[in-house]
Write a sequence for this structure.
């Protein structure tokens, strides 16, 4: 972990209440079964109940807690919290109409395995839900957010500014809240899921935490989660959600675009 200021807040200190403006959960998928075939050959079966999902992934299967949120038309943000693997969590974005899917698998690693890197790693897997032929664009890494500066209001006590610097990094600063005056530049990965819909993720250096957010720019809502290590050493998976306000956009001359 990188050196940090002595007043730097732990993950649990800033995360408390950051789900105030989050969209509500839904039981729309309860009773349904979906099989997702990922581009890398992984096959995942999901049988949804109320607040839980029975999953089967190769030779492994279990029933775990799951939160489902409708973040767009026919599009769901699914967070699976593994009771038997607290250091891991899977976020799935699924459109049951176009049958497109994207998995973001977050893993809290041992500090010795992440020297010089963020301690929480993420694996990205686009896929297709079995059934009719998939429609719409396939989820793919995107540069669309580069140059955007936006404000995210998670609660009256959580307002953050994001500036998307390149395909690999973004800058943040806290405008309102316990982290006010703090900011940093962290590693990011952005996928375009559909028109005006993006999956934005970041992995912090100063504290062991990574995040996954779904942006719906039609509704100007952000829905996501943090996975990381709290101040007392516990691994914590925290929900989050915000209203988005676009503040400005930077445009680059040809040949001078960021990486």
């Amino acid at each position: 972990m990188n050196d940090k200021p002595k007043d730097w807040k732990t993950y649990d200190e800033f995360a408390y209440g950051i789900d105030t403006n989050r969209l509500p959960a839904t039981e729309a998928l309860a009773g349904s079964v979906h099989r997702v075939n990922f581009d890398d050959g992984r096959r995942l079966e999901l049988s949804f109940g109320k607040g839980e999902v029975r999953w089967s992934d190769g030779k492994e299967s279990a029933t775990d807690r799951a939160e489902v949120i409708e973040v767009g038309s026919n599009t769901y943000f699914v967070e699976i919290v593994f009771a038997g693997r607290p250091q891991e969590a899977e976020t799935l974005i699924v459109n049951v109409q176009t049958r497109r899917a994207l998995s973001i698998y977050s893993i809290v690693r041992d500090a010795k395995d992440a020297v010089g890197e963020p301690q929480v790693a993420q694996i990205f897997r686009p896929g297709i839900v079995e059934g009719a032929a998939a429609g719409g664009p396939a989820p793919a890494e995107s540069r669309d957010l580069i140059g955007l500066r936006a404000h995210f209001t998670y609660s009256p006590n959580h307002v953050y500014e994001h500036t998307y610097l390149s395909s690999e990094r973004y800058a943040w600063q806290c405008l309102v809240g316990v982290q006010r005056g703090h900011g940093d530049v962290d590693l990011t990965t952005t996928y375009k899921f559909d028109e005006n819909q993006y999956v934005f993720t970041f992995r912090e250096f100063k504290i062991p935490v990574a995040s996954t957010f779904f942006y719906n720019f039609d509704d100007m809502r952000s829905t996501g989660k943090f996975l990381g290590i709290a101040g007392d050493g516990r691994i914590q998976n925290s929900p989050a959600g915000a209203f988005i306000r676009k503040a400005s956009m930077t445009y680059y001359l040809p040949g001078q675009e960021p990486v």
